[in-house]
């Protein structure tokens, strides 16, 4: 009897396993790249190489052609499933091992059946017409941007990050154009391809994930710089000599970042070259393609007399992208649910790399200011997500990106480094890079390595920080001579966040700093105060800025915190208190009027450039989210813009003034400045400032809008900036039918290809002063979000939602968003979260 039971159980297990395998195989052919397909291919195909050839015409309207040879090894015959998001008409030839073979093109996959393969090495050759989506074609240049899953829109491939491959690229292109790719140029043939044409052949790359493959071709100026035997080239299209003169500084900061990471990691730069291309209208700040790193021109070429914020921002961007060469390119995540493991290191190390470049800056304050407010901006919302998110298919990988992975994760990593200690952290990171060199890793693999360097259970410590969304609500009170600090999970899950918190209690002239250490067991802790006083004590939370959470205040507590802020000599404390006060404003525990008045009293007293900038931003945020009569704020900002002793402070105050200006007096003042091109009080306004001023004036002065736009366009010499302005300007038209036409055009993917321009146009259409007229755009723009995500790059869904909704504060706008969700109860969760994050101010 037992024997037959055992046989029956084995048979049942076999049937279940067979059924599971069939279900897994059924998911191979889903659009995108399913986790099941990725696992199958990773286990089946090795030693993958791509040989790519593209024919690039000079005219943007002409068709671009491509071909690819994909070579790989198999131990046993398996079906070949290549990713290619194309239609049958884009396919020209499909060969296997030199012979035409039958294939299917279905749901973004080319499939060749297993019986056509041979064991060992095979080569699939495909000739095709690529889609324009990832080619980013302009009149005189193009560039590829394939992160996270867009390589399959450019050429047939195994488009998953854990199948690292080598690439050899050839470009047939106009002779006057330059070309840059991941590897150095092997040779150029300027003779064999007819008049005005040439062939550029690049060397083979190191092992790279598909999203890191890239090339740029077009009319560029090249600047080359050397330091200690290492050369880098900067390619750009800038025509302003004052901006071009910044290239040596940019190159120097690249060299500095490379040297810093080599010293920290103990690993020489692991790729053949580092060149960078500065692109007009680039949709990211930067993108870390090895050997061909892309940068946004406005982030790199700064206007005359840039603010400290702008200079720090450029330096941090360079350090971020350079850090990716080790963290992301050399060692890459296995799947895009762990994409944050490259972004966390890039941002964390960026903050450290910039330190020696700015010896006069309080870098602890800069870290707090850079990351915590941005993390809170999403983590406080109904659209909050964990740092590590579930991802079943790479077609949704772009939705993983956001402030949580870029800004919350460095805060968590800094906590982790304090748990480990600096030297243990450094040794653990070096072991991690050695272990996974030119390969793929997971967060769990990293934690397993770091765990060896500390008695702390890092996996348990990090679980709530990495795998759960949201933050604790933290309150503090005094009773019986003790400070009571309580931590609560506002989402009702009963979670506890282990962290060290520092409070300062002020009573009269006395003050005491108190450390509170939350573990994973107690949600409330008490500490005895060393002094007692009859005066009402003021509790200042998180004064070192190292804690993370909503430090809840009451309206009655706020005046004491504001007074302590103004009296404090500690810059980090002031920054942390500013953040706490603003978060309480956003949570509506303190009043907008009180916040606005207190901030205007504080701003003239602040001499730290980082704090002044942060405070100005919070003041603008208060006016945007809780709009009030702008005239008192206009008058206060104009005083700051014309009387503060520091020119950069005046310039920032003027920029906020121009963005919130609403009264006839303020608009008249801005018009005079724009007409005369004379900034107030020794401020220096660049071309971008005047372009933005013209948009504001055209919106507020409809009777002069056409004249203003025509004049501003005539002032612009650079062809790329002229193209940008010509695209955006119709969005400020005084004619409703024109604006409606612009909006309808933005619903067509082809008109959104230059994403920063499309976002600016949508933001102008949804300007706060036209809220009543633009509410009608909300529903159709939200309906377009799936198409925006499918056809756009990783940050565009968020940028689209922000441009659409940030100018709205009305009940009608809130009702439109609520009605949209009511009509779409099954709307994709990750995409819905982007909308919830950007509509949080409407709640």
UniProtKB/TrEMBL annotation:
Family assignment from sequence similarity: Belongs to the peptidase M1 family.
Domain of life: Bacteria
Domain Aminopeptidase N-like N-terminal: 135-212
SUPFAM superfamilies: Leukotriene A4 hydrolase N-terminal domain (SSF63737), Metalloproteases ('zincins'), catalytic domain (SSF55486)
One Pfam family matching this protein: Peptidase_M1_N
GO molecular function: alanyl aminopeptidase activity; metalloaminopeptidase activity; peptide binding; zinc ion binding
Annotated Peptidase M1 membrane alanine aminopeptidase domain residues: 256-465
Recorded catalytic activity of this chain's protein: Release of an N-terminal amino acid, Xaa-|-Yaa- from a peptide, amide or arylamide. Xaa is preferably Ala, but may be most amino acids including Pro (slow action). When a terminal hydrophobic residue is followed by a prolyl residue, the two may be released as an intact Xaa-Pro dipeptide
CDD domains hit by this protein: M1_APN (cd09602)
Record-given protein name: Aminopeptidase N
Coiled coil segments of this chain: none
Any one GO cellular component localisation term in the record: extracellular space
GO biological process: peptide catabolic process; proteolysis
Cofactor(s) required for function per UniProt: Zn(2+)
Keywords annotated in UniProt: Aminopeptidase, Hydrolase, Metal-binding, Metalloprotease, Protease, Zinc
Enzyme type, top EC level: hydrolase
Enzyme Commission number: 3.4.11.2
């Amino acid at each position: 009897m037992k024997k037959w039971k055992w046989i029956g159980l084995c048979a049942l297990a076999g049937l279940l396993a067979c059924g599971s395998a069939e279900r897994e195989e059924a998911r191979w052919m889903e659009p995108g790249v399913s986790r099941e397909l990725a696992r199958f291919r990773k286990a089946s195909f090795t030693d993958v190489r791509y040989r790519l050839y593209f024919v690039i015409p000079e005219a943007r309207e002409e068709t671009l052609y491509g071909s690819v040879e994909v070579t790989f090894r198999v131990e046993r015959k398996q079906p070949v499933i290549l990713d290619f998001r194309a239609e049958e008409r884009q396919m020209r030839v499909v060969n296997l091992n030199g012979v035409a073979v039958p294939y299917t093109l279905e749901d973004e996959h080319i499939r060749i059946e297993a019986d056509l393969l041979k064991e060992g090495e095979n080569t699939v050759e495909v000739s095709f017409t690529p889609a324009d989506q990832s080619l980013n074609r302009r009149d005189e240049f193009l560039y590829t941007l394939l992160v996270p899953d867009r390589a399959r829109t450019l050429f047939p491939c195994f488009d998953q990050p854990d199948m690292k491959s080598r690439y050899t690229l050839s470009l047939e292109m106009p002779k006057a154009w330059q070309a840059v790719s991941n590897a150095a140029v092997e040779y150029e043939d300027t003779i064999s391809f007819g008049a005005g044409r040439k062939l550029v052949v690049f060397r083979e790359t190191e092992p790279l994930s598909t999203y890191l493959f890239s090339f740029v071709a077009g009319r560029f100026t090249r600047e080359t710089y050397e330091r200690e035997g290492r050369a880098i080239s900067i390619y750009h299209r800038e025509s302003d000599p004052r901006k071009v003169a910044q290239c040596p500084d940019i190159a120097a900061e690249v060299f500095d970042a490379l040297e810093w990471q080599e010293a920290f990691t103990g690993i020489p730069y692991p790729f053949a070259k580092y060149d960078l291309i500065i692109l007009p209208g680039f949709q990211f700040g930067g993108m870390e393609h090895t050997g061909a790193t892309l940068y946004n021109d406005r982030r790199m070429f700064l206007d005359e007399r840039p603010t400290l914020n702008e200079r720090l921002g450029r330096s941090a961007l360079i350090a971020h992208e350079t850090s990716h060469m080790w963290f992301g390119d050399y060692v890459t995540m296995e799947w895009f649910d762990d994409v944050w493991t490259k972004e966390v290191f890039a941002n964390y190390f960026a903050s450290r790399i910039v330190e020696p470049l700015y010896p006069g800056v309080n870098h602890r304050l800069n870290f707090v200011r850079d990351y915590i407010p941005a993390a809170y901006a999403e983590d406080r919302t109904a659209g909050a997500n964990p740092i590590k998110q579930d991802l079943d298919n790479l077609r949704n990988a772009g939705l993983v990106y956001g402030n949580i992975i870029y800004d919350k994760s460095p805060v968590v990593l800094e906590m982790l480094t304090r748990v480990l200690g600096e030297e243990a952290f450094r040794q653990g990171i070096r072991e991690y890079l050695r272990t996974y060199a030119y390969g793929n890793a997971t967060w769990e693999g990293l934690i397993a390595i770091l765990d060896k360097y500390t008695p702390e259970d890092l996996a348990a410590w990090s679980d709530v920080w990495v795998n759960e969304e949201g933050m604790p609500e933290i309150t503090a009170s005094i009773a019986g001579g003790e400070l009571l600090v309580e931590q609560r999970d506002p989402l009702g899950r009963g979670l506890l966040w282990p962290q060290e918190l520092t409070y300062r209690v002020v009573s009269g002239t006395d003050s005491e700093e108190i450390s509170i250490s939350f573990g994973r067991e107690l949600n409330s802790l008490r500490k005895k105060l060393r002094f007692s006083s009859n005066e009402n004590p003021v509790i200042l939370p998180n004064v070192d800025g190292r804690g993370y959470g909503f430090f809840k205040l009451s309206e009655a507590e706020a005046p004491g915190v504001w007074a302590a802020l103004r009296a404090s000599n500690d810059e980090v404390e002031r920054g942390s208190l500013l953040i706490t006060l603003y978060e309480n404003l956003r949570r509506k525990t303190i009043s907008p009027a009180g916040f606005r008045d207190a901030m205007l009293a504080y701003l003239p007293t602040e001499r730290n450039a980082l704090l002044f900038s942060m405070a100005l931003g919070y003041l603008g945020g208060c006016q945007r989210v809780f709009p009030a009569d702008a005239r008192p704020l206009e008058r206060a900002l104009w005083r700051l813009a014309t009387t503060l002793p520091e020119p950069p402070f005046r310039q920032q105050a003027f920029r906020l003034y121009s963005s919130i200006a609403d009264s006839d007096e303020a608009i008249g003042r801005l018009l005079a400045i724009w007409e005369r091109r004379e900034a107030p009080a020794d401020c220096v306004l660049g071309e971008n400032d005047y372009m933005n001023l013209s948009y504001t004036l055209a919106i507020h002065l409809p009777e002069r809008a056409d004249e203003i736009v025509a004049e501003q366009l005539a002032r612009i010499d650079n062809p790329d900036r002229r193209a940008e302005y010509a695209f955006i300007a119709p969005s400020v038209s005084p004619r409703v039918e024109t604006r409606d036409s612009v909006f309808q055009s933005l619903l067509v993917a082809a008109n959104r290809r230059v994403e920063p321009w499309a976002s600016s146009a949508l933001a102008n259409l949804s300007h706060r002063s036209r809220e009543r007229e633009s509410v009608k755009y909300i529903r159709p723009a939200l309906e377009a979000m799936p198409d925006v995500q499918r056809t756009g790059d990783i940050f565009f869904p968020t940028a689209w939602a922000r441009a659409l909704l940030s100018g709205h504060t009305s009940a009608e706008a809130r009702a439109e968003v609520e009605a949209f969700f009511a009509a779409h109860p099954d709307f994709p969760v990750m995409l819905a979260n982007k909308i919830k994050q950007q509509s949080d101010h409407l709640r």
